[in-house]
Write a structure and sequence with these properties.
The complex is a heterodimer of chains A (134) and B (384).
Chain A lengths: L4 H5 L2 H6 L1 E5 L5 E2 L14 E5 L3 E10 L12 E8 L4 E6 L12 E11 L6 E9 L4
Chain B lengths: L3 E8 L10 H16 L6 E5 L3 H5 L4 H8 L7 E4 L5 H14 L6 E8 L5 H9 L14 H16 L3 H15 L13 H5 L3 E3 L2 E2 L8 E10 H6 L5 E10 L14 H14 L8 E3 L5 H11 L7 H6 L16 H5 L3 H17 L12 E8 L4 E9 L1
Parallel strand pairs in B: 2-3, 2-4, 9-10
Antiparallel strand pairs in B: 1-7, 1-8, 4-7, 5-6, 8-11, 10-11
Classes of the chains: A mainly beta (134), B alpha/beta (384).
The complex binds zinc ion (ZN).
The site of zinc ion has 8 residues of chain A, from loops.
Chain lengths: 134, 384
């Protein structure tokens, strides 16, 4: 479905820089940012950038892909427990998906995610790769 | 508040119904329901459907159904809670009757999913997730439940064989249900070697794409008693929501939304899970049935797999689950599923389920789920 450019443009802080919101009252970190903290109802936040580092909490290998992702199959999607303590979902790439294990260390990279239907606009965001400590 | 009874039920045959439209199947199910009750005029209509817009390029579905059902000018409301839209329709109709606003409240669940191709259907379903933070990254619904399955296997040692047994059991039950989309038995080996969709979820762990509709008619209990027809009473309702994104939950191996909804429903009915004779639950994927039975308290956390293997939830087990065949075998027209669960419960409570009849079924529980567990609606029904 063709979406107006603003639909994706407004997600830039989260998708390009992994910007999260840290509650000024209880210090809980929320990704994406929220207007009210579900932990303490606080409404004031500081913008923080996630480190991009974490470990694999759970993952799957997508063999039957949705529209736009068919060229990538088989590809891994996981939930990563970030070192900040919160969880983020994204693709896990540059690896053999069959060899992934829960607990593997990963790090985020800026990558091409997909292409907007009719406009062909390329959508970017974060994916995770094995953390080789480089 | 009025006590509320279900006085009529109806559903279409489920499957890929190329020759029938959204309005055809919703009206067909509703007419069967009204004929079953012996009623020809209703006071309100609630239509539960997930996405007429994306599946059929048609919204404004309350009025569409009222119009083609010959109920012009009747107040008609469309409700949506993704795959729990049907359960929400039943709850909404309950509130119409309990409040005294309606005497005859019709709830229709419907989804016509085969008007678009598989990719577009997958897209429509994916909008039940957190689109910008889940579907955007290429996850699918089989994938979301696979993430839960992997977490559950790691935490509790749940095995691939135990997951597969859920499908074997439900296909056996569905083979006894003439309304089912796939009324055929499958073997453990067939499930375990079927095409991999999202590891470890294989094709035969997944509910299919289905066209179908189901309807129930709700009336005050006092009215039901005078109608000289078999009825069931809704004695408990539990409804809860949770984070839209799976990754924001505390435990990926647990469906907390189901636990909360179940506690609410059981409290309202004045019952414990031990008082329930059987359940229809939301087995959109095999892992879901295992996690739901744990969340309901049928077994301890982590025991859903072994209990399934041991036959606890089989038709002749101590706690039968999904006598209808469940979403797996009966099919999963998303908005219709929650209503059809209630239809099966009523048929069982009336003792009209034929070869799949559960002996001495007096109290039933239905559990309908939205998305990856961001909503759940539970009903408790009793034969009187
Ligand atoms: Zn806070």
């Amino acid at each position: 479905m063709a979406m107006h450019v603003a639909r994706n443009w407004r997600e830039t802080p989260e998708r390009y820089r992994m910007e999260a919101a840290k509650c000024k009252k209880c210090s809980a970190i929320h990704f994406p940012a929220r207007l009210i903290c579900p932990e303490c109802q606080g409404r004031e936040f500081a913008t923080v950038r996630l480190s991009g580092k974490g470990e694999l909490a759970t993952f799957t290998i997508i063999r039957v892909a949705p529209t736009g992702f068919g060229d990538l199959t088989p590809y891994a999607v996981g939930i990563v427990k970030m070192d900040e303590g919160i969880h983020v979902m994204a693709q896990i790439v540059d690896c053999n998906p069959e060899e992934l294990k829960i607990g593997d260390r990963v790090v985020s990279q800026f990558r091409r995610i997909n292409q907007e239907g009719k406009t062909g606009m390329i959508l970017y965001g974060y994916k995770f790769v094995p953390d080789l400590g480089l | 508040m009025n006590e509320v009874a279900i006085i009529g039920v109806g559903m279409t045959k489920w499957g890929e119904l190329w020759e029938k439209s959204f309005r055809d199947i919703s009206v067909e199910a509703a007419l069967k329901c009204l004929d079953d009750a012996g009623v020809d005029k209703v006071d309100s209509i609630t239509v539960g459907t997930m996405s007429g817009g994306l599946f059929n390029a048609q919204e404004h579905l309350g009025s569409l159904v009222a119009d083609y059902l010959g109920q012009r000018f009747v107040p008609a409301t469309r409700v949506e809670s993704a795959c729990a839209s049907g359960g929400l329709a039943v709850k909404t109709a309950y509130m119409e009757v309990a409040s005294g606003i309606s005497q005859y409240a019709l709830a229709v669940g419907v989804e016509k999913m085969t008007d678009v191709d598989g990719g577009d259907a997958t897209f429509a379903l994916a909008t039940a997730s957190d689109y910008d933070y889940e579907a955007f990254h290429g996850i699918t619904f089989p994938g979301l439940y696979a993430l839960m399955a992997v977490a559950h296997m790691k935490k509790y040692g749940t095995s691939l064989e135990q997951l597969a047994q859920v499908s074997v059991k439900n296909h056996h039950n569905g083979s006894l249900n003439p309304h089912a989309q796939f009324p055929c038995a499958v073997t453990l080996d067939q499930v375990m070697t079927s095409t991999m969709v999202a590891d470890p979820m294989r094709l035969l762990h997944c509910s299919p794409i289905t066209d179908g509709s189901a309807a129930v008619l709700l009336v005050p209990l006092a009215v039901a008693k005078k109608m000289n027809k078999p009825y069931a009473v809704i004695t408990g309702i539990g409804h809860a929501s949770d984070t839209i994104a799976l990754c924001q939950r505390k435990d990926f191996a647990k469906l907390e939304v189901v636990e909360v909804a179940a506690q609410r429903a059981l409290k309202m009915a004045g019952k414990t899970i031990r008082d329930i004779d059987f359940a229809e639950v939301h087995d959109c994927f095999s892992i879901a049935e295992i996690m739901v039975m744990e969340a309901l308290g049928v077994v301890e956390s982590g025991q859903g797999g072994p209990a399934t293997m041991n036959g606890l939830t089989a038709l002749d087990g101590d706690f039968p689950i999904n006598p209808s065949g469940g979403l797996k075998s009966k099919g999963h027209p998303v908005g219709a599923t929650g209503v059809a669960q209630v239809v099966e419960a009523v048929i069982q409570l009336r003792g009209q389920a034929g070869p799949r009849q559960i002996k001495n079924a007096r109290t039933a529980l239905t559990q309908n789920m939205g998305g990856s567990g961001a909503s759940s609606i539970i009903h408790i029904l009793e034969a009187r």
